[in-house]
Structure formats: structure tokens, C-alpha cells
Amino acid sequence: MNAQLNVDLHSHSLASDGLLQAHEVAARAKAGGVDVWALTDHDETKALGEARAAAEALGMRFINGVEISVSWTPRTLAANVAAPAPVAADSVRKSRSASDTTIHIVGLQIDPANPALSKGLKAIRSGRDERAARMALDLEIAGIPGALEGAKKFAVNPELLSRSHFARFLVEAGKATSTHQAFFNYLTEGKPGFVQHQWATLAEAVSWIRAAGGVAVVAHPGRYKQLSQPQLNEFFAEFKDLGGRGIEVMTGSHSASQYDHFAEVARCYGFLASRGSDYHGPGESHVEPGALPPLPADLTPVWHDWF
Ligand code: AMP
Ligand code: MN
Ligand code: MN
Ligand code: MN
């Protein structure tokens, strides 16, 4: 294993919410100096064949990937919140879903043809349609009609309607000046276009990845701001118990101090470390493919036994 390799294991194409076709992402990765590249579309693997062919033609190693949407609820409440009074079973379910956090789990070295994985991803994708309809209704009530049709125009893969497509519609409709502002004003928790949604469970996502021969990695752990430190610790412990192996340390979502923090988390839990830009395309990403700093030398990279 060559420590000098430029490895980028997180990116998106038009098969999910990226802006470029898989072969165009491959070209950007190559231009960024990437030697080993993974495409990790949200809940979708259909562009992996195109990505592999393009990567190999450009002389890069290609790793099959996917980024799975998960809903997770901590068993423990934040330390300073009193335990709630006992409630009836159906209201427990409601209150649990209201406190769900969406977490992304990256699967690497997966076999996309594995039936458990492909069936699970298909089920997640179909849930996106119903969520999109509720988002559009919410936006209509807030005075923005036509969001479903508007978002669909940006979604090349009809099975993968994402908040990113709604954000692009909101910019086009003049309701926001950037997709980031569209998220801030409409598409994040508490805002008019945000609806709660039930994704896969953590156990399901990790088991599908493992069934498909892959390695499960927590995507951008610094982004789960809704979770307190003890809750995030509970999450890491549960993820590890389920057979999760790694976390992203170097990601386009982390600040320099978060690089250090999550390197320490990897050491404490014995997690493998991953590095990925989370590239979505020109103008919608913090960093270009291949541009992140290398992993701290003492961590074990998730790719340590791949080649
Ligand atoms: P979804 O899976 O449909 O809920 O969409 C999640 C995607 O939205 C993420 O993968 C990001 O690409 C994008 N996203 C989430 N939050 C923001 C934000 N604040 N600004 C820009 N894009 C965001
Ligand atoms: Mn995305
Ligand atoms: Mn993500
Ligand atoms: Mn991503």
C-alpha cells in the first residue's frame, strides 16, 4: 500500500444530486490528481459501471461506493433533559420520529448486484417520491407553487429526487440567491419546505453494506450538529457494534479542528479512517476532488488492505 496515493472516496454524479455525469466526475478527479476514486451516489448505484470504465480509462483505480440515508434516534436523551413521562406506544413512535437525526453511511467496496443491498436502496429511493410531494405541498402553503415539477426538471434520475433539486428550483424561481441560501431558508429543520422523513435504520444500512461485501463508513461525522457529544458517542458505539468499520476524518464538510477531533475519535474507537471530498460539481462543493489534506500518518486508512 502506497502512503503517497491520493485517495478520494466520496463523490456524487447526476445519478443522485451531483451536477455532472459520472465520466465527467472521473475527469475532475483525474485533474485533481486522484489515484483511487469512489463514486458514492445517495441511495443509488446505477452510475458505478460508467464511473469505473471512465476511471480505468484515465488510469485511476475505482472503488464501488454508495451513500445510504439513515434515520437514527439516540436511546439516551441529552444529559440536561429530564426523562419524559411514559406515553402510549403510538405517541412514542411519533415523538421518536420527531427526534430522528438523518445520518449518512458510506458503503465502500460493495457489490452493487447484491440483492439485499439493491432491494434496500430501491426501497429508500421510492420513499423519496412521497417525501418530495410533502415538501412541495409545504412550499405551496408557504406561497411557492410548482416546486415538485420544478425540482423534477433538475433530477436526471427520476428515482432520486433530492433536496438539492428543490434547492436548484428555488434559486431558478428567484426565491434564493444560492442553493446554500435555499437550504438555509427552506430546506432545513424548522423551515417551510422541510419535512421529517423515515430513511433506513442504521442496522439495515450496515447489514446491506456488509452483505454486499463492503465496508461501512460514517460520512462527515462533524455534520450531525443535532446530536450532543454523548449522543454522538452512543451512535459510534452502536455503529461499531453493528459491524461498522470506519469514519470520514478528512471530508469537505470538516474544518481543520474537526480533522483533528475526528482523527482522535478514530483512534479512540479503533475506526479505519477515510478521506473524501463529497464533490457534487462546480459551484456546489467546498473542495475539489483530491484536494483535501492527507490522513494523519498514524491512522489506518480504510483502503489499507485493498491493494
Ligand atoms: P436529501 O438526501 O434529499 O435530504 O439531500 C441531502 C443533500 O442535500 C446532501 O447530500 C447535500 O448534497 C445537500 N445539502 C444538505 N444541506 C445543505 C446545505 N446546507 N447547503 C447545500 N447543500 C446541502
Ligand atoms: Mn448530496
Ligand atoms: Mn452526505
Ligand atoms: Mn455525499
Overview of the molecule:
The longest helix is centred in the middle third of the chain and has 27 residues. The chain is 39% helix and 13% strand. The radius of gyration is 19 Å and the shape is globular. About 4% of the residues have low confidence. α1 packs parallel to α2 and α4 runs antiparallel to α8. α1 links the parallel β1 and β2. The chain has 307 residues and is α/β, with parallel strands linked by helices. It has a seven-stranded mixed β-sheet with strand order 1-2-3-4-5-6-7. The structure holds adenosine monophosphate and manganese (II) ion (3 copies). The site of one manganese (II) ion (MN) has 4 residues, from loops.
Brief characterization of the structure:
This protein is α/β, with parallel strands linked by helices and 307 residues long.
Give the SSE layout.
Layout: E1 7-8, H1 22-31, E2 36-39, H2 48-57, E3 61-72, H3 89-98, E4 101-108, H4 115-141, H5 147-152, H6 163-172, H7 179-187, H8 202-211, E5 215-218, H9 229-241, E6 246-251, H10 256-269, E7 272-276
Parallel strand pairs: 1-2, 2-3, 5-6, 6-7
Antiparallel strand pairs: 3-4, 4-5
Helix pairs in contact: 1-2, 4-8, 6-7
Bound molecules: adenosine monophosphate (AMP) and manganese (II) ion (MN) (3 copies).
